[in-house]
């Protein structure tokens, strides 16, 4: 299903913080239009007016902006910097408290492919059995630095997700974790439910996807040709 007709669209210059909070709580994601390509100061000022950015050493100048593009210089690039499909996931799922918001600003579309993927957790849950829900809430899934549940309740009693299939593969390769039969089935059921409700769409240059990182899973399809996004992870102001 295309998300073009279903995601709210706002002007990045005029949208209010209150509107963003309400939208990310209910729709879980929206499109923000009107960014100027290559204007990092504009992007940084907008983010700082909405919340507190996560600063990472690998970001541009160690700041808030990370460039997502094919990296042909490194022998072992970050997976985001390859042209391959990226499974549905939660950003920073290994953090004790993953950032609640992610922005992905399109600067250049791929020659072909590269569609963004979304899955609203509230739409996923009704497709899961009681047994699967119980399994996914157990703190027995490998996330690099700790074992955590995939599903949990936040203080508002909303279901949140922490999900990164690549970590599960890594844990097994390093002999740090082996899935039980029940976990394998629960993960298969979860992935099947995600695909049933997923949305796909192409971002246009100058448009950004803003998503609730804890209540909306995201990914991308494989692509050909250079594709350039600017990513910012942050916590929305209360």
- End-to-end span in angstroms? 32 Å
Q: Return residue spans where pLDDT drops below 50 for at least 5 consecutive residues.
A: none
Number of helices: 6
Cα-based radius of gyration, to the nearest Å: 17 Å
- Secondary-structure-derived class: alpha+beta
What fraction of residues sit in β-strands? 25-35%
Query: Helical percent range?
Result: 10-25%
The number of distinct β-strands equals 17
Largest beta sheet, briefly?
7 strands, mixed
Order of helices and strands: EHEHEEEEEEHHEEEEHHEEEEE
Shape: globular
Mean pLDDT across the residues is 95
What would your notes on this structure say?
- With about 240 residues, this protein is an alpha+beta fold.
- About 25% of the residues lie in helices and about 30% in strands.
- It is built from 6 helices and 17 strands.
- It has helices spanning about 15-25, 40-50, 120-125, 130-135, 165-175, 180-195; strands at about 10, 30-35, 50-55, 65-70, 85-90, 100-110, 110-115, 115-120, 140-145, 145-150, 150-155, 160, 200, 210, 215-220, 225, 230-235.
- The strands form 5 sheets. Strands 1, 2, 3, 4, 6, 14 and 17 form a 7-stranded mixed beta sheet that branches.
- α1 links the parallel β1 (about 10) and β2 (about 30-35).
- α4 (about 130-135) crosses α6.
- It is globular.
- The chain starts with 8 loop residues before the first strand and ends with a strand.
- The mean pLDDT is about 95.
Summarize the model shown.
By secondary structure, the protein is of the alpha+beta class.
For this entry, give a set of tags.
238 residues, alpha+beta, single chain, seven-stranded mixed beta sheet, four-stranded antiparallel beta sheet, 24% helix
């Amino acid at each position: 299903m295309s998300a073009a007709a279903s995601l709210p669209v706002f002007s990045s210059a005029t949208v209010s913080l209150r509107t963003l909070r309400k939208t990310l709580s209910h729709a879980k994601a929206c499109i923000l239009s009107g960014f100027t390509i290559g204007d990092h100061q504009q992007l940084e000022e907008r983010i700082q007016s909405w919340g507190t950015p996560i600063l990472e050493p690998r970001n541009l100048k160690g700041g808030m902006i990370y460039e997502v593009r094919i990296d042909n210089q490194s022998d072992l690039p970050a997976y985001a910097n390859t042209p391959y499909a990226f499974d549905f996931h939660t950003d920073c799922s290994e953090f004790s408290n993953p950032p609640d918001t992610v922005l992905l600003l399109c600067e250049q579309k791929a020659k072909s492919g590269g569609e963004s993927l979304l899955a609203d957790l509230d739409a996923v849950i009704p497709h899961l059995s009681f047994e699967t829900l119980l399994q996914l809430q157990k703190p027995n899934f490998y996330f690099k630095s700790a074992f955590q549940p995939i599903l949990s309740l936040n203080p508002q009693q909303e279901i949140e997700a922490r999900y990164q299939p690549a970590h599960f593969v890594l844990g097994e390769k390093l002999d740090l974790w082996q899935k039980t039969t029940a976990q394998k089935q629960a993960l298969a059921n979860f992935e099947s439910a995600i695909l049933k409700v997923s949305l796909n769409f192409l971002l246009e240059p100058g448009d950004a996807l803003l998503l609730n990182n804890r209540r909306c899973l995201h990914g991308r399809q494989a692509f050909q040709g250079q594709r350039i996004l600017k990513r910012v992870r942050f916590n929305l102001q209360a």
